[in-house]
Amino acid sequence: MGEKTIIVNGKKYKTTEKYLLQALEKLGFDIPHLCSHPDLEPIATCRLCVVEVNGRIRTSCNTIVEEKMNVITDSEELIEMRRHNLELILSNHPLDCDYCYRNMHCELQRLAEKITNKTRYSGKQRKREKDESSIAILKDFDKCILCGRCIQICEKQTVNVFDYVNRGFETIVGTAFDLPLSQTPCVSCGQCVLHCPTAALIEKDETQPVLKAINNPDKFVIAQIAPAVRVTIGEELGLKPGVILTKKLVSALKRLGFDRVFDTSLGADLTIMEEAAELVSRLEQSKSLPMFTSCCPAWVSFVEEFYPEFIQNLSTTKSPHEILGAIIKTYYAEKNNIDPKNIVVVSIMPCTAKKEEARRTELKVNNLEVVDHVITTRELGKLLREFGVEIEKLEDSDFDDLMSASSAGQIFGTTGGVMEAALRTANYFITGKNDYEKIDYKEVRGLKG
Question: Measured in Å, how far apart are the chain's first and last C-alpha atoms?
């Protein structure tokens, strides 16, 4: 969109944003909202972002910016309308904030703190059983505020597990035929959890079994950390986004009681070696092409569920944390004379789908699950807060040494990194060249001319 001039509270501003809410936020105006999210198209269900536009009350999230529109953001009437709408939402919400999983990390709670300190309404509470059938995701729709974010993001993934069901007060966000999540096409990608503003959808918490293992003197507990976590953990703990905490995170995990801390980048390196070798083999045989990476368990589940005809095109290589788990319970266990049955591997991952992947029976080695528990960045943050570990104050520590990894494992977690690492490794297998900046990708793709 081209640049437009709008008048906000009597002052002129210029903006290139499509929707008014985004424009106001970019200009520094704090407009409350719950259903709106930058990843999603606006549907204006929560009615909290109301502003006055040319004398009329409008929801700003779905109002398209027009030249010289006159906007008022903070009149007495608007403030009362927002407070009224929020109190109506709270009147049907279980007010168990003190012991809610999302306490202090809940968008509804933050808005309540800003806008109102009471509710004038006493609404009827929903009473539905929690859905704990999924390995990765817990659904508690008593805490649902009907914002519709999960519906939109699931549709965006083309999975479409959720939709509005029933009418009036009986409206819920549900699944087809009210099936439990485990019986739907859910691929456990966790996007619904990421976008939910309350605790209606959360990751299955595995912190307690992890602590139980740490406190068991007969168990040798090993943590492995995905590359993304060493950056996102800072934001989870309230630090400035983008702060790299790799070495301090190792120290924090040792303080929690982990016996060893390994870098999942090594597993990524081995994944790339395997995938590249498999790609070269398929090219030589002109078999099952194109080949898709298998490093993302949600993607693998998506192919299995919706496009089974392409299963043959998936690489047969395990994901990085599964490969590293297998190395730990075979090579590392033998090298250090530890019974694999006494090793507990905890993967610290940015993805809920890894929880489901870890339970796949076909990934077992010697009849053992190679990854015993998967905890997300949010679960790790919960553990660190619970034990009073202030990560920014810790000294730096290095990862424990298992075996060295190349740069392929390091770039794995960046955008496009998997493809770059796989192609340059395949190039080396084919040509023997290590000059990655001069890779002839046509040569890599066209072994047969």
Answer: 46
